[in-house]
Amino acid sequence: MPTIPTQPHFNTQVVPATTAARIATKDVTIWKIILYPAAANSIVQLKNGATDTGDILLTLGAIANGPSVEADFTSVGGLYFSTGCFCKPAGTGSIAYVWYT
Questions:
Q1: 24-36 pLDDT, tens per residue?
Q2: Which of 8, 24, 33, 39 has its Cβ near the most Cβ atoms within 10 Å?
Q3: What is the pTM of this model?
């Protein structure tokens, strides 16, 4: 019987612009993020901290009704947040999708 290769398992979180959210309260690695812009120009900030007061380590932007914007860090070992991660999308109807461990 063939062996099925193992794949990494990630936690995921969906964060709409109406509800900024804490991804983690301790060190965490972000592997991928997708920003869906919907009806307004949109941005998402990932902050190093468990609250909105952390330092911004990543900002992505997308135009209204445009394609989703993706940042994939799997080929470089992820994007490390030492004190937690807070995700803050903005823009009417925008949604951030985050993969992390």
A1: 999 999 999 999 9
A2: 33
A3: 0.87
